From TrEMBL, chain A:
<protein>
    <submittedName>
        <fullName>Multiple sugar transport system substrate-binding protein</fullName>
    </submittedName>
</protein>
<dbReference type="InterPro" id="IPR006059">
    <property type="entry name" value="SBP"/>
</dbReference>
<feature type="signal peptide">
    <location>
        <begin position="1"/>
        <end position="20"/>
    </location>
</feature>
<keyword id="KW-0813">Transport</keyword>
<dbReference type="InterPro" id="IPR050490">
    <property type="entry name" value="Bact_solute-bd_prot1"/>
</dbReference>
<keyword id="KW-0732">Signal</keyword>
<keyword id="KW-0762">Sugar transport</keyword>
<dbReference type="Pfam" id="PF01547">
    <property type="entry name" value="SBP_bac_1"/>
</dbReference>
TrEMBL record, chain B:
<keyword id="KW-0812">Transmembrane</keyword>
<dbReference type="InterPro" id="IPR035906">
    <property type="entry name" value="MetI-like_sf"/>
</dbReference>
<keyword id="KW-1133">Transmembrane helix</keyword>
<keyword id="KW-0762">Sugar transport</keyword>
<dbReference type="InterPro" id="IPR000515">
    <property type="entry name" value="MetI-like"/>
</dbReference>
<feature type="transmembrane region" description="Helical">
    <location>
        <begin position="89"/>
        <end position="114"/>
    </location>
</feature>
<keyword id="KW-1003">Cell membrane</keyword>
<feature type="transmembrane region" description="Helical">
    <location>
        <begin position="126"/>
        <end position="148"/>
    </location>
</feature>
<feature type="domain" description="ABC transmembrane type-1">
    <location>
        <begin position="90"/>
        <end position="296"/>
    </location>
</feature>
Length: 452, 306
């Protein structure tokens, strides 16, 4: 019996050892930097940029290997995967592609490494990154936590043929929300079979619904904001909030938007890009600067005619209030984990990945606006894209999200409200009231909320 | 090796109970030890951790992820006042009753009954088709049903309709898909159980003038009742925790129209990063699963005594 006991214990010890032993990744003398990023079949641009950067980096940094770890899927899947990997120092990637609105939550959790000291050693940071862009990943403590890869703006894309058919003027220059809705109503009337207006307004589209949809409306109302900077409080509902929801409500109740099934479809963006616009089945889309990248020769479904068929115009403010137009900007950065053992080597990879050539590859591929001055000034950057100047100039009216720690949760509440209004299960007033009710729990107490 | 027997315990009527000696304990504990330890580490451990986390405000990121605090029953108070949770709870109930207790269970029994006495070819073909649905991975099953129910899908093409089924009837879609996928399990359980029903009993009932319906009701079903209970318990627990199929088919949507509790739990824990709140939901699910098992186990016991 004693022998049996010893045998079992031995077996157990072996099993435990097998479980506990971690495969040591770093071979003798070699260092490995793991880079986490996102890839989708229709969105291979980042992978290409990082693949190029890996080759360049490894040829000049012997002994350091770059391990590229892709996450397949949309932004929401990527956020989740990253947050889970970041739970432990063992699984956290050294570097990662990071959405700016998530940065402050991760700074609060101590997961990101401040880069200020390293940035001071990099001449490009001073020479090539405009001050406004440098703020993209600034923490609440004033330190910089990421190097911007791209930025963006948002506005309206419209189909010129549809407008001609509906008897609407081209170029189209709406001055108020009403102008936009009137155009949509005209399209519905005069061009049957065409979806007049599309926007993201359901939870499945995540942050796209909040930012491309709701905030493009809210920040266009007089004084409309999610966060009061002066009082440092989150704004609970109010008239601006309800008005923005009312716009969404009008779109769906008057059937000016896509069918509800499409509004809830995860592939709505692909439908807009590859089906509806090329087939002249869509009039107006409230979307981002990057949309036309889906039609370039390097895309999966090129549509060269877009340059003649598609127009672009700023999203107007509610009643034409100054400055007359509204835009929202976000963007992605390359961030460094606070757990990384090789800060210098990791930072060097960031500088290679965001050098001029690689930034160019990314910006031309994705249609996102370049973060670097030398890329923006290069004729190659705008050669294939006649809309790029327009989107870049929108920076003069753009707003940034209050990307504080609580923002991702606030965003989730906004998506709830929008979806309820989209499906018609709540009126704009009810949805705004529910938002105001939920807000204190989300931002950490009633003292952080400004009642409206 | 001495074996001591103790007197029958006064609580138990009838058969004497043999209390094992220390040696006796070692005899079963030693070979079981490794398995028990592994279970403790990989099953009890996570469950205990889950119980602990459910009483904190732990999140995946943000300041609460580094210094989470004990918040008592706050998560549970919030849970039972949360309209979305109550909605998910009702949907889970519909899903379990509709797809498992009624759908898979009844359909599996019917197929197993119809197969009795059929030729080998028929049985192989039917078994093959039904089991094929069971062996495909959840996601593949979901994709099959998606392409069947989509707007340009098979169903609409055959019927000549233009109906977005996954939007207009999401619960019906997921219930049907789960019946399609899970029936094989019940069918196999019942096939095995039915083969144990003595043919002479059924024949005797027939000779006594019992029609097919009466034979089923009064001879066959009572004989396989324990298999029925065991099957119900297994498929209930499986369906209660079902996640992949619904997630891949409707994502819980549109809105929350097919968001069963596991999907709601996932959304809270991994999309909104509220791991403490998600764990509280998981704990409630665990208790519900345990309650279901207790009820079924009790029913089996009652049957045994009767």
């Amino acid at each position: 019996m004693r022998r049996a006991l010893a045998g079992s214990l031995l077996a157990l010890a072996v099993a435990a050892a097998a479980c506990g032993a971690e495969p040591e990744q770093e071979s003798a003398g070699g260092k490995e930097i793991e880079v986490l990023y996102k890839v989708e079949p229709t969105w291979p641009h980042l992978e290409k940029m990082l693949g190029d950067a890996k080759k360049q980096y490894e040829s000049t940094h012997p002994g350091v290997t770059i391990k590229l770890t892709p996450v397949q899927g949309n932004n929401e899947a990527y956020y989740t995967k990253l947050a889970l990997l970041n739970r432990s120092a063992d699984s956290a990637p050294d570097l990662y592609y990071h959405d700016t609105f998530q940065v402050n939550a991760d700074v609060a959790a101590g997961k990101l490494a401040p880069l200020d000291d390293l940035l001071a050693t990099w001449p490009d940071w001073q020479a090539q990154f405009p001050d406004s862009v440098k703020q993209a990943a600034k923490g609440g403590d004033g330190k910089i936590y990421g190097v911007p890869i791209s930025t963006d703006t948002r506005g309206l894309w419209y189909h010129k043929d549809v407008f001609a058919k509906a008897g609407l003027p081209v170029p189209w220059e709406p001055k108020t929300w009403n102008d936009v809705l009137t155009a949509a109503r005209t399209i519905k009337q005069k061009a049957p079979g065409v979806i007049p207006f599309s926007m993201y307004s359901t939870k499945i589209h995540g942050e796209a619904a909040t930012m491309q949809g709701f905030e493009m409306l809210l920040y266009g109302t007089p004084g409309g904001t999610l966060y009061d900077d002066a009082q440092k409080k989150w704004v609970a509902g109010g008239k601006n909030f309800t008005d923005a929801l009312t716009f969404v409500n009008t779109v769906y109740r008057e059937e000016l938007g896509p069918k509800l099934a499409d509004a809830h479809n995860a592939k709505l963006a692909q439908k807009i890009l590859y089906e509806w616009f090329p087939a002249a089945k869509l009039g107006i889309a409230l979307d981002g600067a990057w949309v036309s990248a889906g039609w370039t020769p390097t895309s999966t479904q090129p549509w060269p005619e877009w340059k003649d068929k598609i127009g672009w115009t700023p999203m107007p403010t509610q009643n034409g209030e100054a400055p007359g137009a509204v835009s929202m900007s976000g963007g992605w950065v390359m961030a460094m984990s606070s757990y990384t053992k090789h800060k210098r080597e990791a930072f060097d990879f960031i500088t290679v990945a965001t050098n001029k050539d690689n930034s160019m590859t990314y910006s031309v591929g994705t249609g996102d606006l370049a973060a670097r001055k030398d890329v923006a000034a290069d004729p190659k950057y705008s050669a294939e894209n006649p809309s790029i100047k327009f989107w870049t100039d929108l920076a003069s009216v753009t707003h940034y999200r209050p990307a504080y720690e609580a923002y991702p949760k606030v965003s989730a509440q906004i998506q709830e409200a929008m979806e309820a209004v989209t499906s018609g299960s709540k009126s704009p007033e009810e949805a705004a009231a529910d938002y105001a009710k939920a807000l204190p729990g989300v931002v950490g107490g009633a003292d952080k909320v400004l009642a409206r | 090796m001495t074996v001591t027997t103790t007197a029958p315990s006064p609580r138990v009527t009838g058969s004497p109970v043999r209390r094992p000696s220390r040696r006796g304990v070692l005899r079963w504990l030693v070979p079981l030890g490794p398995a028990l330890l592994l279970m403790a580490i990989f099953m009890a451990g996570p469950i205990l951790w889950n119980v602990y986390i459910a009483f904190t405000n732990e999140t995946l990121t943000g300041s609460a992820s580094v210094n989470s605090q004990f918040v008592g029953v706050a998560n549970f108070v919030r849970l039972f006042g949360d309209a979305n949770f109550l909605n998910s709870f009702a949907l889970t109930f519909v899903f379990v009753i509709g797809s498992a207790v009624i759908g898979q269970n009844t359909l599996g029994l019917i197929i197993a009954l119809l197969q009795r006495g059929r030729g080998r070819v028929t049985r192989s073909v039917v078994n093959g088709v039904v089991i094929a649905a069971w062996v495909v991975p959840e996601v593949v099953a979901a994709v099959c049903w998606f392409s069947f129910l989509a707007e340009e899908g098979t169903l609409n093409t055959v019927l000549g309709l233009s109906q977005e089924w996954l939007y207009t009837a999401p619960m019906v879609a997921v219930v049907l898909a789960n019946i399609w996928r899970g029936t094989a399990f019940s069918m196999l359980v019942y096939s095995a159980a039915l083969s144990e029903v003595p043919a002479d009993l059924v024949e005797a009932a027939a000779v006594d003038g019992a029609g097919p319906w009466r034979r089923l009701l009064h001879v066959t079903l009572p004989l396989i009742r324990r298999s029925i209970m065991a099957n119900l318990m297994l498929i209930t627990l499986q369906t209660l925790a079902s996640f992949g199929l619904i997630y891949a088919l409707t994502g819980g949507g549109p809105g929350t129209a097919s968001q069963t509790t596991p999907l709601y739990m996932y959304e809270q824990a991994f999309r909104y990063f509220e791991i403490g709140y998600g764990s509280a939901i998981a704990l409630v699910m665990l208790v519900i699963g345990a309650l279901f098992s207790l009820v079924y186990l009790r029913l089996i016991k009652v049957e045994d005594v009767a």
